Amino acid sequence: xxxxxxxxxxxxxxxxxxxxxxxxxxxxxxxxxxxxxxxxxxxxxxxxxxxxxxxxxxxxxxxxxxxxxxxxxxxxxxxxxxxxxxxxxxxxxxxxxxxxxxxxxxxxxxxxxxxxxxxxxxxxxxxxxxxxxxxxxxxxxxxxxxxxxxxxxxxxxxxxxxxxxxxxxxxxxxxxxxxxxxxxxxxxxxxxxxxxxxxxxxxxxxxxxxxxxxxxxxxxxxxxxxxxxxxxxxxxxxxxxxxxxxxxxxxxxxxxxxxxxxxxxxxxxxxxxxxxxxxxxxxxxxxxxxxxxxxxxxxxxxxxxxxxxxxxxxxxxxxxxxxxxxxxxxxxxxxxxxxxxxxxxxxxxxxxxxxxxxxxxxxxxxxxxxxxxxxxxxxxxxxxxxxxxxxxxxxxxxxxxxxxxxxxxxxxxxxxxxxxxxxxxxxxxxxxxxxxxxxxxxxxxxxxxxxxxxxxxxxxxxxxxxxxxxxxxxxxxxxxxxxxxxxxxxxxxxxxxxxxxxxxxxxxxxxxxxxxxxxxxxxxxxxxxxxxxxxxxxxxxxxxxxxxxxxxxxxxxxxxxxxxxxxxxxxxxxxxxxxxxxxxxxxxxxxxxxxxxxxxxxxxxxxxxxxxxxxxxxxxxxxxxxxxxxxxxxxxxxxxxxxxxxxxxxxxxxxxxxxxxxxxxxxxxxxxxxxxxxxxxxxxxxxxxxxxxxxxxxxxxxxxxxxxxxxxxxxxxxxxxxxxxxxxxxxxxxxxxxxxxxxxxxxxxxxxxxxxxxxxxxxxxxxxxxxxxxxxxxxxxxxxxxxxxxxxxxxxxxxxxxxxxxxxxxx
Amino acid sequence: xxxxxxxxxxxxxxxxxxxxxxxxxxxxxxxxxxxxxxxxxxxxxxxxxxxxxxxxxxxxxxxxxxxxxxxxxxxxxxxxxxxxxxxxxxxxxxxxxxxxxxxxxxxxxxxxxxxxxxxxxxxxxxxxxxxxxxxxxxxxxxxxxxxxxxxxxxxxxxxxxxxxxxxxxxxxxxxxxxxxxxxxxxxxxxxxxxxxxxxxxxxxx
Lengths: 811, 205
Ligand code: SF4
Ligand code: SF4
Ligand code: SF4
What we know:
The complex is a heterodimer.
Chain A lengths: L6 H9 L4 E2 L9 H4 L5 H4 L4 E6 L9 E7 L2 E7 L13 H9 L10 E3 L8 E3 L2 H19 L4 E5 L8 H5 L12 H10 L26 E5 L3 H4 L4 H9 L3 E5 L5 H5 L2 E3 L6 H14 L5 H7 L5 E3 L27 E4 L4 E4 L12 E4 L2 E5 H8 L5 H8 L3 H12 L3 E5 L10 H15 L9 E3 L41 E5 L10 H8 L4 E6 L11 E4 L10 E7 L2 E6 L11 H11 L10 H8 L13 H6 L3 E3 L57 E6 L13 H4 L6 E3 L1 H6 L7 E6 L2 E9 L7 E5 L22 H4 L13 E6 L9
Parallel strand pairs in A: 7-18, 8-9, 8-16, 9-10, 16-17, 18-19, 19-20, 24-28, 25-27
Antiparallel strand pairs in A: 1-6, 2-3, 3-4, 5-6, 5-20, 11-15, 12-13, 14-15, 21-22, 22-23, 24-29, 25-28, 26-27, 26-29
Chain B lengths: L3 E6 L8 H9 L10 E4 L9 E3 L2 E3 L2 E4 L8 H5 L5 E3 L5 E3 L9 H5 L6 E2 L25 E2 L5 H4 L6 H5 L5 E5 L6 H9 L15 E3 L1
Parallel strand pairs in B: 1-11
Antiparallel strand pairs in B: 1-10, 2-5, 3-4, 6-7, 8-9
The site of one iron/sulfur cluster has 12 residues of chain A, from helix 4.
């Protein structure tokens, strides 16, 4: 490309298909080659300030103040208009956007594949050609194979609220991600309306601002200080207020290093820790009897034979409608009257340890059964299983029982193991034993991100009633393994690689599809498999004055126009509209983003927005602090749970068939210590989350690469055992596949584990992708759970060897 | 007198590098250079650790020009390009700097960086504060305590952007400033006091 080639010239060349791109579509044009400084009219102008919000996938919900000079983004700062200083945040990734939005890693024009799928050879095409190709393929496919022959997968960031309905396509069922621990925890406490608590993501019941009220914060399997950059202050506020913070993590994470104590654990054994703690709590009688009696299912009665709970009359299993609790309550043994009584009868004292026979069947309380369950789980066993000493486990149990204590659970650690549901369930039992819930300083769950803050509900754009997505045929993660009807696959954001363990198997499936479309801001690892690639705008760009509205972190925020769309990118709204138009549904769609904003911000939908008008919002510096959201959320106040019984329902009848009605320890599926596969693949593969990425975002940002590039991390013990030298390119491999990357040693990595940042982009590695080796197991139990099975990326064994010089020669 | 300074709470510092990029952005620092670096003390890798697993410690040390009361760099500069201004900031006059780099050798904190080549920026335009001078090839540069911001009575960019609020800024000569209070209450220390440079930057844990 010649210097100074103008934008229009390039589009012309591109449209006739002469610009052949290399792998990854990178290096097309540098920003200055592409976009000249603004013309005379703007060059003279003063600096301009505009506000936008950053991507939201990290949960930070930061509002950003941007300075534009000569049409170029010159400064990004936290929006300083908020009273509450903890809302004035912009982390290292937010700042890196100053380069990232102009990066040569941007998808600059619509692209069409010209080489083999996966070869990364594309030519630039016009938007018209791209949209027509997609619309035609969708129509043809749906005519021939039905509506659900089109699959749309949206990652968290792209905003296409209407697209699935417009296309009538399927959307792939359960998420597969972040639900592991939630499957085990959330059913015991229930969904709290207007929040994310209880929706099976294990979102913490109290939000992170409340940690300041905790005596102990036991943080298990979460690298909060890297995963929750928007809220790191709360951790230190709590610590400085005297909350004693203990982090349990296989690795010496940043959070571990900043906690009062770090307790290393064998990966994937967190359930054993919790069961060991429960054992101590029972043996030392540290439990809260009143709470257990009044607020949990511990007094409910278990049928010895079939493990079901005793109700007033036998459950009619063929009945169409399940009976309500009024019709058929659970029974408990009332110590006052010495009789069986409905659990919710007035004036009773439910027994925690009754046993007896009624109608010829023998019953014992859930607590008695739990104590028996615990017989297998001695302190010695827990210590052996977790690698944590008996003393430490006992100490953790004592701290936790000496509340108010909060129990932090992870996203990214043990929740990416096949046994993650048992972790959440065992945590629920610890909560139920101690009553550490529903009051200040006593929370449980995943504390990262502002998801655990207040959730504001928005109105949605009305579409005709019959304009709805197809029912999912199956979960998307089953599609590579089961026959299905998908012919056209639309991936908005990199759903091709990001949510895919055992990528090579998925690629086999991808090869069978008629059309793969990938739409994103930057070219990510999965893009090479696409037939059509679409360039989307970042949150700094839009074509109109406003690009959207968003709520989070107590703020109602606007996306003002900072810049016009860069390169040939278009805002999500416009892309959605153009696809809808090409499908013939233009008349149903909003004409502008502001039309949608009108519908979204509606006090009738969410009364907390009363008094906030759209015009006030538009005139505000990037948003408005929503009144009355200053106090931390404490869910289940009064210890009233959102379960049918209003109690903590820690006994899961739905799991009887899997012997998980109470948490039973199950070894990791693959990465267990005893797996004979370890002879070949001795290292646990840790797909780590770090502060430099949000999944596949920011991996291509040169300002991030200053500090972090893809690299295999090994403890020096494992490093030397393999005779490696600093900077060697190694191959990480197992039966599923392999990838190659530069390798370093880091004492913070647990011996016996290989750590690698998930979301690392293939184009910055020597070869392959982390997902080539990750475990694709789906548990049968997970299929029966409320949020479906979790993808077990971390439940993976690998070996690492030095790649040969020739192999390692690539850049 | 005014003696502007930054005081850093190392307990709150999580090594996130936000301040490093905040500084780079505000001051139009080219690729391959940082005026403000966050060091993982005693480790060759960022976010490494000291000790042997599981007996580990980690300490982050954000490092930029310490704005010494007795600056070694200023003492050795043969042309007087390095000077201390009326607010106590140690600054470089880029028009005078001859690129001899004696100051870089003299600085015990390795705070200075040098434009060996034509500066390369990514994105390739001048970002940051509009009044920050663009430095040519052949001069040294370093933290200015965000002169252009602090002249406007704003905090330095690294202080504004630190997500944990680990960094405080103010006037050491004002006994009621936040930084003076921290130095008193937390016994905030200086780096390498034995070098006699007497930094204004202080740290505490
Ligand atoms: S990445 Fe998250 S924490 Fe960082 S600036 Fe963006 S929204 Fe804020
Ligand atoms: S921004 Fe703050 S927390 Fe982050 S490295 Fe700098 S001083 Fe430390
Ligand atoms: S005070 Fe300004 S110049 Fe100095 S390190 Fe901070 S951001 Fe950089």
